[in-house]
């Protein structure tokens, strides 16, 4: 069954499964100790129940019809356990079972709230004594932290029973009057100091206890005790418990009783205020605010207010008319003004939950005040907006602390508006401040603050639509509609966009005064604006089709979003500006190009960057327009705006984004005429931000665009380099750059590493089809730069990688006219170079950086092969361009990379190989020469599955990859690749490849008489030959030895002992492993050789040859080798039968100190025992 989170839910679909799991938990006997199987079963059931409930957390009401059925059995089981524990005086019994049951009950309470769940608790009068006694039983094990859910639930149970109107004295024994009440009070007070949820349940219990008729006399003593405790500053948790209890009392206590204690309650709030330690705690400040506002509310008489008309009304009269004079003339207590002053201060608190409590408090109090007093409160709240607004040029210049003030003011206005407490005459001021709040965004370090203010402003407008009539909203409709739509598509935060969209929807549905409301709402609904890119590039242009919204959207882009601190926002703003301007490019394009130009002169580099992005998009729009001929002059004009960019900004390494954007602007707007303009007379000169510096530094010579491109090419940031290369690529389509290419090649060979990296990329980006650009020199330069035998080879890895990438780019560019620009020798030379690049395993402090080159070569080989195949019909003598043996060498190299240890290399090799496997053969005679060998096997392995799996998945790949060894033409390369994976230190790669090789070798026949099939002997001989041919290279020999040790330990080669050729192959392996051991310096290689010799002891035909060689390892001059040999030999003798009694030998191995130098005697003894 699907998990709840996988789809939108409309009902409790997991009811049957849930009931079954819960019944399984309830079936456990709480008095018996669970077995290990029961413990596991109950634990899994509990986890599954928690997962199901979590899936419905966003829609808890779906369980309401089932709550009674679900909760009642649990509480009845709990009550039964309580009765049993109290009556038998045996305590809780096994703690695990009752802990699981109480945890399930706690999950329900967290899911639906304690007020809902406690309704299903047993609440008969007789349950009180049981619950009280049960609390005592539970508290006996208070040191067991996992029992706190049980304690929490029992306290809630007692609090529910306390609500029953009966006299507690009837439970008292004779001569012990008040004992029951004292027991309840003591249990509650004892838990008020706890740090967890028990404190909250104790607060609820005590509040319900103190408001009872028969226990109200205790309230005074509790309040005075609370006051003294807070003044004595006994701790945070005590203060929290006391304040929460007092707050609950104020909420539910009868008026005639509460008014006697209000002075004490206010003393408590003032005492908390004086305590700086308590006031530093957010929850304390929140509870103090709730207590203040609730107490002030109880000081005022309830008033039957006239509700505001909801939705659309025909009359312009508002329901905020004054009440009867008799209702308005009551005196407002002095404490109200003091409380309101504290609430106003809390609206500026640094924490949201405090501001939110204060906002609700001020609105609730105002509901009971006269209209005149309410008007004064509204003025005070709205005055908070102006505290930080005086003396600043814009919202963006406000201090960071303004966020708290504005957010609190917005929340308070929203609550007041929702209750219809803001008079119609104040709506213009309210709308004015809200319009500013919608744009509240203050930069703070690497981020900004203000999203909470914008969200609260949307709440105000949502409340406004629900409370006021159409006639009252009409004067503000046009402005509000434009602002709401703009923020709903252009705000950075998704929750703000959706909140504003909800407010717009409320206006459309209830008032109908917004232009094209239904149509616009369909374009900016909850889902349409959920993704930022979709909101900018789809929803916004669709809304801009309505002229009522278009100017506002465009103005917001230019004045706000293009200047945003987030670069991604500026990029989306530029793209959105283009899409909207394309609706009327002739009129809008020029106008907003000039608006964007104004930002180029701003001191903030964010403004400059945004302007360059906008101008680039507009230039592209002019080029792509059907009216491009008419708009060409405007595109050239945009190019001239480059002169407005300060040179200091472009040349600074910190402003890489600006330089990148300038290069992209050149690529989008440059033309041939502008390239050919005389530098001195016609090209504008670049501004210097500080005129005094002109005499101190000589500016680079040349036209503006060339200076910018030069800066980009020399920049260290690769994104800037690529942008500069893109600009030169556009220039190369317009004019012959042969002189420029000669300069680039000279700089390439002598420049800095970052400059070499940049120029290597540029040489592949030029358009060689439009002009020749000295292509032979370019090819020669690229080949020399990657040739390992050339003195001109680049030492920089990134430069070599870009050289290989440039080769494939050149081939892609020249594909339609290949035979006119590249001769056969050049093509073959580049192809050979790409094949050689597959062997680049350069390693530095960053790791295997050679993988970057190998990936580039894999792509390049695929591009060359596919391009040449597709153009084969037009190439004279196609085999001279791509000989078949070279092609198969490329296939073998690609497959080798496809089975190596790095996931990203394997994935790239797999993707490119499958492209080659599925490509058609070249149109040339004897095309079968280029057919990939073993094609039927390859297709069955990699093309038979309906859903392809990536080659980076080692568990999927290697069981298939080992079968590639059956293809003789590619066997050596594939074997080397698998060897590298076998020696990988990455467990996710090493384990699948070794398991796959072991299974593959086991499946092979020992030998094949006619040699037609791949056999085990051939595998071993080939592997041994790989080691023999390169005995001087540890990097080649050690992986082979590791492979054989894996196979020998898994008994994958045991059948070789039955074949003469197999024995000969194993003898060769023994010879390789035991040759020159004393001369080896690599401890790893020595140990791998040792393991081979020890593992071959179990082969009867080789036993006598292996035993003498053990002395080379047991008496080696490296102590670690001696110890490792003794340990490994002992393990092999313990686990395998070598045909001899080894008990004495094992004893010697254990008793000898192999790390000392006195091991010769023990070595001789062991050799004699094993012979």
List key phrases describing it.
1171 residues, mainly alpha, two-stranded antiparallel ribbon, 59 helices, flat, disordered N terminus, TBCD protein
Task: Walk me through the structure.
This protein has 1171 residues and is mainly alpha-helical. It has 59 helices and 2 strands. Strands 1-2 form a two-stranded antiparallel ribbon. β1 (442-444) and β2 (447-449) form a beta hairpin. α38 runs parallel beside α40 (775-786), α46 (884-898) packs parallel to α50 (971-982) and α58 (1143-1151) runs antiparallel to α59. The radius of gyration is 41 Å and the shape is flat. The relative contact order is 0.02. Mean pLDDT is 88; it is low at 1-6, 306-327 and 678-699.
Architecture blueprint of SSEs:
Blueprint: H1 15-26, H2 36-55, H3 67-88, H4 95-112, H5 114-117, H6 127-139, H7 148-161, H8 179-191, H9 197-210, H10 217-232, H11 236-252, H12 255-258, H13 262-274, H14 276-279, H15 282-299, H16 325-328, H17 334-346, H18 352-366, H19 371-383, H20 402-418, H21 427-437, E1 442-444, E2 447-449, H22 451-467, H23 470-473, H24 477-490, H25 494-510, H26 517-523, H27 532-543, H28 550-559, H29 567-581, H30 585-599, H31 605-624, H32 628-640, H33 647-651, H34 656-669, H35 672-676, H36 704-713, H37 718-734, H38 738-750, H39 753-765, H40 775-786, H41 797-814, H42 818-821, H43 824-837, H44 850-870, H45 878-881, H46 884-898, H47 903-917, H48 935-942, H49 954-961, H50 971-982, H51 987-1003, H52 1016-1028, H53 1034-1049, H54 1060-1074, H55 1083-1095, H56 1100-1114, H57 1119-1135, H58 1143-1151, H59 1160-1170
Antiparallel strand pairs: 1-2
Helix pairs in contact: 1-2, 2-4, 3-4, 3-6, 4-7, 6-7, 6-8, 7-9, 8-9, 9-11, 10-11, 10-13, 11-15, 13-15, 15-17, 15-18, 17-18, 18-20, 20-22, 21-22, 22-25, 24-25, 24-27, 24-28, 27-29, 28-29, 29-31, 30-31, 31-32, 31-34, 34-36, 34-37, 36-37, 37-39, 38-39, 38-40, 39-41, 40-41, 40-43, 41-44, ...
């Amino acid at each position: 069954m699907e998990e709840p989170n996988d789809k939108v839910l409309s009902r409790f679909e997991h009811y049957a499964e849930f009931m079954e799991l819960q019944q399984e938990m309830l079936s456990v006997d709480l008095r018996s100790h669970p077995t290990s199987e029961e413990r596991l079963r109950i634990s899994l059931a509990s986890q599954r129940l928690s997962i199901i409930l979590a899936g419905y957390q966003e829609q808890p009401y779906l369980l309401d019809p089932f709550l009674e059925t679900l909760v009642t059995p649990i509480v009845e089981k709990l009550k039964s356990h309580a009765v049993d524990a109290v009556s038998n005086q045996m305590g809780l019994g096994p703690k695990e079972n009752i802990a699981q049951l109480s945890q399930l009950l706690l999950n329900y309470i967290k899911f639906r709230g304690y007020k809902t769940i406690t309704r299903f608790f047993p609440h008969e009068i007789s349950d009180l004594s049981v619950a009280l006694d049960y609390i005592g039983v539970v508290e006996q094990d208070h040191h067991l932290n996992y029992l706190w859910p049980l304690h929490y639930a029992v306290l809630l149970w007692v609090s529910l029973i306390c609500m029953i109107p009966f006299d507690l004295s009837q439970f008292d024994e004779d001569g012990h009057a008040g004992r029951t009440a004292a027991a309840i009070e003591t249990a509650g007070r004892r838990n008020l100091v706890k740090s967890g949820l028990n404190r909250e349940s104790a607060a609820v219990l005590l509040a319900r206890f103190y408001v009872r008729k028969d226990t109200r006399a205790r309230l005074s003593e509790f309040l005075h005790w609370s006051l003294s405790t807070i003044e004595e500053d006994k701790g945070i948790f005590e203060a929290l418990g006391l304040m929460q209890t007092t707050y609950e009392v104020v909420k539910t206590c009868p008026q005639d009783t509460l008014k006697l204690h209000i002075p004490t309650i206010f003393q408590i709030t003032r005492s908390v205020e004086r305590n700086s330690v308590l006031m530093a705690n957010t929850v304390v400040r929140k509870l103090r605010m709730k207590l203040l506002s609730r107490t002030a509310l109880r000081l005022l008489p309830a008033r039957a207010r006239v509700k505001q008309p909801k939705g659309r009304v025909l009359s312009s009269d508002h329901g905020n008319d004054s009440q009867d004079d008799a209702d308005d003339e009551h005196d407002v207590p002095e404490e109200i003004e003091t409380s309101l002053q504290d609430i106003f201060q809390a609206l500026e608190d640094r924490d949201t939950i405090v501001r939110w409590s204060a906002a609700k408090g001020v609105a609730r109090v105002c509901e009971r005040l006269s209209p005149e007093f309410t008007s004064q409160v509204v003025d005070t709240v709205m005055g908070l907006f102006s505290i930080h607004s005086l003396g600043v040029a814009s919202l963006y210049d406000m201090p960071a602390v303004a966020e708290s003030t504005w957010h609190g003011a917005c929340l308070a206005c929203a609550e007041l508006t929702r209750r219809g407490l803001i008079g119609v005459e104040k709506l213009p001021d309210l709308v004015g401040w809200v319009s500013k709040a919608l744009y509240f965004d203050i930069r703070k370090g690497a981020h900004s603050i203000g999203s909470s203010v914008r969200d609260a402003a949307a709440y105000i407008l949502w409340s406004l639509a629900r409370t006021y009539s159409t006639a009252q909203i009409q004067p503000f409709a046009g402005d509000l509609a434009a602002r709401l739509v703009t923020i709903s598509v252009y705000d950075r935060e998704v929750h703000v966009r959706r909140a504003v969209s909800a407010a717009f929807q409320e206006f459309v549905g209830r008032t109908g005064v917004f232009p094209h409301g239904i149509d616009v709402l369909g374009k900016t609904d909850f889902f349409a604006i959920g993704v930022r890119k979709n909101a900018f590039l789809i929803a916004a242009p669709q809304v801009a089709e309505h002229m009522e919204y278009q100017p506002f959207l465009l103005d917001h882009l230019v004045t706000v979003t293009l200047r945003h601190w987030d670069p991604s926002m500026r990029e989306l703003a530029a793209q959105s500006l283009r899409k909207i301007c394309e609706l009327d490019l002739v009129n809008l394009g020029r106008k907003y190009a000039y608006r964007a130009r104004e930002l180029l002169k701003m001191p903030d580099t964010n403004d400059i960057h945004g302007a360059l992005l906008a101008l680039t998009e507009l230039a592209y729009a002019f080029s792509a327009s059907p009216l491009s001929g008419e708009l060409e002059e405007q595109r050239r004009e945009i190019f001239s705006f480059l002169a407005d960019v300060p040179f200091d900004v472009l040349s600074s390494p910190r402003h890489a984004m600006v330089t990148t954007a300038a290069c992209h602007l050149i690529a989008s707007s440059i033309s041939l005429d502008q390239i050919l303009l005389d530098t001195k007379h016609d090209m504008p000169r670049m501004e210097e931000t500080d005129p005094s510096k002109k005499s101190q530094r000589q500016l680079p010579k040349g036209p503006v665009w060339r200076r910018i491109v030069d800066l980009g090419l020399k920049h260290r940031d690769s994104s800037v380099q690529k942008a500069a290369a893109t600009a030169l690529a556009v220039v190369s389509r317009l004019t012959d750059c042969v002189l420029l290419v000669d300069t680039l090649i000279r700089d390439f060979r002598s420049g800095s590493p970052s400059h070499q990296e940049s120029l290597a990329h540029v040489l592949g980006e030029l358009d060689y089809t439009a002009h020749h650009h000295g292509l032979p020199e370019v090819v020669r330069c690229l080949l020399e730069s990657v040739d390992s035998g050339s003195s001109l080879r680049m030492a920089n890895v990134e430069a070599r990688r870009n050289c290989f990438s440039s080769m494939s780019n050149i081939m892609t560019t020249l594909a339609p006219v290949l035979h006119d620009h590249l001769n056969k020798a050049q093509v073959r030379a580049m192809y050979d170079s790409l094949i050689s690049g597959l062997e680049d395993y350069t390693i530095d402090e960053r790791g295997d950086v050679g993988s970057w080159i190998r990936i580039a070569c894999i792509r390049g080989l695929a591009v060359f092969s596919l391009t040449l195949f597709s153009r084969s019909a037009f190439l004279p003598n196609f085999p001279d361009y791509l000989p078949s043996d070279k092609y198969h060498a490329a296939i073998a190299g690609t497959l080798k990379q496809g089975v190596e240890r790095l996931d990203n290399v394997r994935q790239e090799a797999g993707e490119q190989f499958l492209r080659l496997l599925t490509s058609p053969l070249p149109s040339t005679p004897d095309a079968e020469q280029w057919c990939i060998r073993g094609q039927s096997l390859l297709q069955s392995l990699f093309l038979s599955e309906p859903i392809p799996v990536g080659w980076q998945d080692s568990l999927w790949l290697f069981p298939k990859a080992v079968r590639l060894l059956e293809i003789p033409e590619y066997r050596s390369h594939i074997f080397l690749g698998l060897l590298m994976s076998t020696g990988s230190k990455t467990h996710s790669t090493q384990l699948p490849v070794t398991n796959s090789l072991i299974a593959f070798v086991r499946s092979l026949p020992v030998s094949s008489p006619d040699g037609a099939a791949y056999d085990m002997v051939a595998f071993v001989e080939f592997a041994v030959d790989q080691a023999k041919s390169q005995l001087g290279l540890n990097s080649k020999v050690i992986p082979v030895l590791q492979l054989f040790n894996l196979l020998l330990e898994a008994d994958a080669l045991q059948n070789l002992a039955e074949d003469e050729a197999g024995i000969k192959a194993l003898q060769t392996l023994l010879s390789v492993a035991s040759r020159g051991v004393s001369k080896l310096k690599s401890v790893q290689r020595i140990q791998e050789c040792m393991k081979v010799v020890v593992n071959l002891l179990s082969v009867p035909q080789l036993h006598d040859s292996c035993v003498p060689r053990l002395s080379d390892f047991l008496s080696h001059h490296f102590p670690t080798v001696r110890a490792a040999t003794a340990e490994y030999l002992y393990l092999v003798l313990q686990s395998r039968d070598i045909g001899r009694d080894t008990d004495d030998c094992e004893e010697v191995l254990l008793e000898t100190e192999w790390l000392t130098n006195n091991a010769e005697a023990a070595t001789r003894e062991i050799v004699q025992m094993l012979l």
